[in-house]
Structure formats: C-alpha cells, structure tokens
UniProtKB/TrEMBL annotation, chain A:
Source species of the chain: Streptomyces sp. R44
Topology with respect to the bilayer: Multi-pass membrane protein
Domain ABC transmembrane type-1: 77-283
Name of the featured protein: ABC transporter permease
Localization per record: Cell membrane
PANTHER family reported for this sequence: INNER MEMBRANE ABC TRANSPORTER PERMEASE PROTEIN YDCU-RELATED (PTHR42929:SF1), INNER MEMBRANE ABC TRANSPORTER PERMEASE PROTEIN YDCU-RELATED-RELATED (PTHR42929)
From TrEMBL, chain B:
Similarity comment: family membership: Belongs to the binding-protein-dependent transport system permease family. CysTW subfamily.
Location in the cell: Cell membrane
Cited Gene3D superfamilies: MetI-like
Keywords (A to Z) from UniProt: Cell membrane, Membrane, Transmembrane, Transmembrane helix, Transport
Taxonomic lineage: Bacteria, Bacillati, Actinomycetota, Actinomycetes, Kitasatosporales
Presence of the UniProt keyword Magnesium in the record: no
Ranges annotated as spanning the membrane: 20-41, 77-97, 109-130, 142-162, 183-208, 241-262
Keyword Transport: yes
Protein name as annotated: ABC transporter permease
One example of a Gene Ontology biological process annotation: transmembrane transport
Length: 296, 278
C-alpha cells in the first residue's frame, strides 16, 4: 500500500478500513440473506416432509434423500449427466475449429467475429431456443435441406429425440466454450505452432500435440461453464425433447410446480448441486496441478 | 531467404477445415434468429410458408394487453434491479479491492456463488426463501431475486476496473485536502463512471431477458415477458411471439452496443471487456 511510506497517514488507517467495511457491508448482507440463507433453506428442506395438504414442513427425516435412490431418478440423473457431457463434447468439437480459425485467420476482424458470436447469446434464451426448434422441426429448413441432399429420409426426426435436446443445449451454451478457448488461443505463443511445423508435423498433429495442450485450461474452463447451465436446463427438453428425455431440471421444476412436493424437489436440487460441485472440485484440482507444473 | 519465406507461408497457411466449420457454425448461429425475425413479418400464421410481408403480428402484440402488461413489468423489474445491483455492487467492488479484511474475503466468496450455481438452484432457493418468510410472490420478489443475481455481475466487472485504478489518485486528492470519503466520491467514482454505466446497461439487458429466476419468483399477474413467452411457446405456434422476440432482439442488440460504446464515448479505454471474459 502506498500509505505505509507516509507515517502521518498511519493514523488514518483505521478510518480507511472503516470506510471500506461500510462499503462492503450492504452488499454482503444482501447476498447473505437472499443467497446464502435461501440455499441453506433448500438444504434444510431436503430433510423435511409434506403434510397431508401438501404444505412443506421442516423436519429431520431422510425420506427424500433415500427416495433419490429410486431407479427412476437415477436414470434421469444419469441421462442429464450424459446429455451434459455430450453437449460439452460437441461444444468442444465446434469451439476448437471456430476459436482456432478466428484466432489465426481473423486478422483485423477478430473482435467483430467474436462480437458476432456473443451478440446472439444476449438475445432472449427462450426466443433463440424457439427459433432453433423451428429450424430443427420435421418440415423445418434443416431437415428439408438434408432430405434434398439425401442425408435424411422422410422418417428422420430431430425434435422429440435426445439429439434434439443436445442440439438445443449446444445452441444455448456453445458460446461459453468458444470465449475461454479463444482467449486461451490468443494468449498462446504462436511460435509454438511454427515450431511444430518446422519439426515437420502436419496441421493435424500440430493441432493435437501443440495447440490443444497449450489451450487446455481454456477448454477446461469452457467445460465447466457449459456443464453448469446444461445440467440445470429444463427448457431444451420442453422444446426439443419428449417425455422420454426429461432431465433433472425438469424433475425439479415438476416437484415445485406440478407435484407440489417441495422437500423432494429440494433434495433433487441438492443432488444436482452435489454432482456439479464434484465436477468443480475436479476442475480446481486440475488447474492447481497445471499451475504447479507451470511454476516448476 | 527462400527457406524463411517458405516457413512464413507455412505459418500463415489457411486452416481450411477450421474455416469451413466456422462458416457452418455462423450459419447455424444466425438461422434460428433469422427465422424468428423473418416470420414475424409473415402475413400468415404458418412457420414454414412465408406468405407475404405484413406487420400483422406486431399489431397483434400492441393489442395484447397481457403481453403489454408483462412488457411493462419486465421493464420495471430491469430498472429496479439495475439501480439496486449497481449501488450495492459498486460499493462492494470498491470495498473488496481497497479493503482487505475478513469481511472482504467472506464477501469475495459469497459473491462468486451465483456464478457457480445453476440458475435453477438459485431460482428454487429464492422461491423457498420468499415462501418461508410468508411473502407472496409478486413483482417485488422478482426484483429482489434479480438484484441478488446481478450484484455478482456488477462486482466482477467493476472489481477489475477498481484494481486497475491507481490508488494514488485518491491519495493525491487527500493531500489536497479531501477526506477519504470525498476522494472516493469526487475522484474514484467519476473515474469508474464509464464502467459503472456499461455494467448497468448490461445488467438491464440480462435481467430483462432472464427467464429461470423470473419463472421461479413471479406471482400470478402480471408475469415477466420471458415467462409469458415460455407459456405461449409451450402451446404451439404463436406468431405474435415472433414479433415480440424480434423486438426483444433489437432491444438487446441495442443495449449491448450501447454497453460496448460507452467507454469509447468517454474517450478512454477500460470500460467493459465482454470479449476477454473478464
């Protein structure tokens, strides 16, 4: 701190600290009440019950937690994980070439191109998904084009299938993969690519053994940013999928709105959080290890 | 010489495959939005046959009191959430960067929670809190939830800007006789103004478009526009939604352009860096 060099100011240190504390206090209090307390409430209600009228009651029973062992829930959880992971993989497959193309060939249009990717993301999520579902519909432009070139027949469907759900999730969240990957590629030392070429590696080998390892932190960050919303999404299934594709977000929504079983809904919410926290811890351990290696 | 040129050409070789994927990606990114915009001008109800240009669905929207009420509510919620989260978030960012104490480390952690929590969880949590406190879900509860959600955005954006600000300008102001509080008010805040305005515009756009949080915390009537859209599109084709969606799209793009332009209008860098993901 600049002040330590000036003895007269030392007396003002306490006053200064007080000002910063006063500035932090309202926001911290707000977040504690409206965020932390409410999350604790969800965790607590997961151990509650419902009375005969369907009203939630706090308690200490493990019924909701044991109910999660129900194979039906396990199927939905595994399906959600599966869809989220496939979404993540597809996003990686799209984001790597796109980020690479813009970073290496974007020239002075780089920022414009990235902005062109970010701007649709700010369009209303539901409207975008709705437009996407129209494009993917049975007589929508995509399937008509595929049928015209013989890649699909009359019976091919995208909506109401798992593919449709994943397509929805990818469309919704691919931007979260592209931005960190692009940032990582921009930071990357391009002489590495030239070095790879100098060592007679082909474009594919250079990409796989130079570019991918050099940008893996961006990819890892992108995976976390895609997995988080993809796991909790319930709109994609409603617009692109059918009852056979429901995800954990749909279950939670159902327990709170139709089923009126809030304790069970809370338990499912905590389950979702637990799965994501596990993934997050894995990510943090991974990045720590990367950083430790970088230091070494 | 020749070898050097050969290498240069090698490094600049166009990644044809990546470029092809990028072209397809951009097409798929914009086609759905194009469909919504195009069919908002369709004279028929169909979503597959474009029959002729008409403003019919825009007219239908302007006559739809339910949608107009929802629009009004969304605008009110966004304005209040913007004001509330900017005041709380800017103060929090200043305190977090300048003051280092235990409250700060706690606040720093709490502030990150919304960013690593899926929205459905924060939505459920907010709903339970309001119900637990016996508060009827209404426009007010949506506002409270949206403020909570937005504080993090404002703080994250402002935090890096405050950190980039030289604390010595405050010291200089104080050497010239200002109190610490005056220094913050007269020197620090004006220096941060472009970033503050940009984050305010961004929060407005995000809150206006937010669906999940609004869905869990809204009461019966009026409902936020995105919640109305959700119930409408679940029941099949609703051409009016194309018109509403197009208008929202134009609004969001305008706001984002504004948020990006604000720092330039002030003639300096360091406003809102959407692209580097900071």
């Amino acid at each position: 701190m600049a002040t330590t060099a000036r003895p007269p100011r030392a007396a003002g240190k306490a006053a200064r600290e007080r000002l910063w504390t006063w500035l932090m206090l309202p926001g911290t209090l707000w977040m504690t009440v409206f965020l932390l307390a409410s999350l604790i409430l969800v965790a607590t209600l997961a151990f509650g019950t419902t009375d005969p009228l369907g009203n939630p009651r706090f308690g200490f029973v493990l019924d909701n937690i044991t109910a999660l062992a129900d194979p039906a829930y396990r199927t939905v959880l595994l399906r959600s994980l599966g869809y989220a992971l496939v979404t993540c993989a597809v996003c990686l497959l799209i984001a790597y070439p796109v980020a690479y193309a813009i970073a290496t060939s974007g020239g002075r249009y780089k920022n414009v191109l990235i902005a062109a990717i970010v701007v649709p993301f700010f369009a209303n999520y539901l409207v975008r998904m709705y437009g996407w579902s129209v494009v993917l519909s049975d007589d929508g432009p995509l399937l008509r084009a595929l049928r015209a070139i013989g890649l699909a027949d009359g019976g091919t469907r995208i909506l109401q299938t798992g593919t449709g759900v994943v397509a929805g999730l990818v469309y919704g969240f691919v931007v979260f993969m592209i931005i960190p990957l692009y940032a990582a590629m921009e930071r990357m030392d391009t002489s590495l690519i030239e070095a790879g070429r100098d060592l007679y590696a082909g474009p594919l080998r250079t990409f796989l053994f130079v570019t991918v390892p050099a940008t893996r932190q961006g990819a890892a960050a992108g995976c976390v940013l895609v997995l988080l919303p993809a796991m909790g999404d319930f709109v994609s299934v409603q617009l692109m999928g059918g009852p056979d594709q429901i995800m954990i977000g749909n279950l939670i929504q159902d327990k709170f709105f139709q089923g009126q079983n809030w304790p069970l809904g809370s338990a499912l919410t905590m389950l979702l959080m637990a799965v994501l926290l596990l993934g997050m811890l894995g990510y943090l351990r991974r990045t720590r290890k990367d950083e430790a290696e970088a230091v070494r | 010489m020749r070898a050097a040129r050969g290498r240069r050409r090698g490094a600049e070789r166009r990644p044809r495959f990546a470029l092809a994927v990028t072209a397809v990606f951009f097409a798929l990114l914009y086609v759905p939005i194009g469909v919504v915009v195009l069919y908002s001008f369709n004279s028929q109800k169909s979503l597959t046959v474009f029959d002729g240009v008409s403003l019919r669905w825009y007219g239908a929207f302007l006559r739809d009191d339910v949608l107009l009420n929802s629009l009004g509510m969304s605008l009110r919620v966004s304005l209040v959430a913007m004001a509330g989260s900017v005041v709380l978030g800017v103060a929090l960012a200043l305190g977090l960067v300048r003051g280092r104490n235990r409250l700060g480390s706690f606040a720093g952690l709490v502030m990150l929670v919304p960013l690593i929590t899926p929205e459905i969880v924060t939505g459920v949590a907010a709903m339970l809190l309001f119900k637990g406190l016996g508060i009827t879900l209404s426009t007010t509860t949506v506002m409270l939830a949206e403020i909570t959600f937005s504080i993090s955005y404002v703080t994250v954006i402002l935090r890096s800007r405050v950190a980039a600000l030289n604390p010595e300008i405050e010291e200089a102001a104080m050497d010239l006789g200002a109190t610490r509080r005056q220094a913050v008010r007269l020197v620090t805040l004006p220096a941060l103004l472009p970033s503050i305005l940009a984050s305010a515009v961004l929060v407005f756009a995000l809150v206006f478009d937010d669906f999940v949080l609004a869905y869990f915390t809204t009461g019966v009537d009026p409902q936020p526009l995105s919640v109305r859209i959700y119930s409408a599109i679940r029941f099949g084709v609703q051409p009016t939604i194309n018109a509403v969606g197009t208008l929202m799209l134009a609004g969001s793009v305008g706001l984002i352009a504004l948020a990006l332009a604000i720092p330039r209008l002030f003639g300096r860098r360091g406003g809102l860096d959407l692209l580097s993901g900071e």
